[in-house]
Amino acid sequence: IYRNIGDMKNTGFEMVINTQNIKKDNFTWDTNFNVAKNNNEITALPDDNRDQIIGNVIRRVGERLDSFYLVEYAGVDPNNGDALFYKNTLNPDGTLDKTKTNDYSEAQRIIAGSSTPDWIAGLTNTVEYKNFDFSFTFYGEFGGNLYNSGGKFMSTSASNGYDNQTVDQMNRWQNPGDITNVPQARLGKGNGVEESTRYLEKNDFVRLRNLSLGYTFNKNLTSSIGVNKLRLYVSAINVLTFTKYSGYDPEARSDTNRGGGGSTFYSAPPAKTVTFGINVNF
């Protein structure tokens, strides 16, 4: 049964700036810029505010909704190629023990980020020159994370023998003294494939969302054939994406039940489409 079982609050701001940069008889240029910031916080949970852990995320009072809750990856032991993890157990003074271990069971989970971005922004420019019109829109998100649930299959030095591997596996540990963040390849044996921050990434991106170019014929020409307005155009969607995220789509939110919100599993990127068209008004 779906119920409202807790409370949360959202605070932030949104700002929109519209400018008319140039306005002449045969040339205009308008700009629209918007930016928004949202701070999300859980303020109450049932059962005396008890933590709710769902896969790789946690709901905890004082934290963002569905914050990632993972063992912290600590790189590779240069002596033997073992994957390492920070223990993060609680010291007597209240600090976390940052000792490294190759025993995953010795490591405690910590809150390691959230799938919701801190900032979102958009920028649209529209230019008209004589009979031509041109516009483009950039959209971006910053401060969020994505968990790559497919990483344990395709970024594991082929230890499972199933999937093609990501290019970073070329930098795996091979000899004593190697300094790398990719554990030794061990066929049929897991080495760093456990759920951890190894597969958690920043998903900051800027995407050229829309691009459009059109031409409107002179009325003197179109009126002779009984047409009030005739415009030819070409437009494109999801043209370019600028990001350091290694997965297919940094804008993905959650397409899998593997680990809760913000976990993706071989997410297909949005289609890049180009459309040609004609607008006719009688």
Q: What share of the residues lie within helices? A: under 10%
Instruction: Report the uncertain regions.
Output: none
Average residue-wise pLDDT = 91
Tell me what portion of residues adopts beta-strand conformation. over 45%
Order of helices and strands: EEHEEEEEEEEEEHEEHEEE
Query: How many strands appear in the DSSP assignment?
Result: 17
- For the report, how would you describe the main beta sheet? 7 strands, antiparallel
What is Rg? Answer: 26 Å
Give the CA-based shape.
elongated
The spatial strand order of the largest sheet comes to: 1-2-10-11-14-15-17
Terminus-to-terminus distance: 55 Å
In terms of structural class, how would the helical and strand content be classed? mainly beta
**Number of helical runs?**
3
Describe the model.
- The structure is a single chain.
- The chain is 4% helix and 46% strand.
- The protein has 3 helices and 17 strands.
- It is mostly beta strands and 282 residues long.
- The model has no long low-confidence stretch (mean pLDDT 91).
- The strands form 4 sheets. The protein has a 7-stranded antiparallel beta sheet.
Can I get a quick summary?
This protein has 282 residues and is mainly beta. The protein contains three helices and 17 strands.
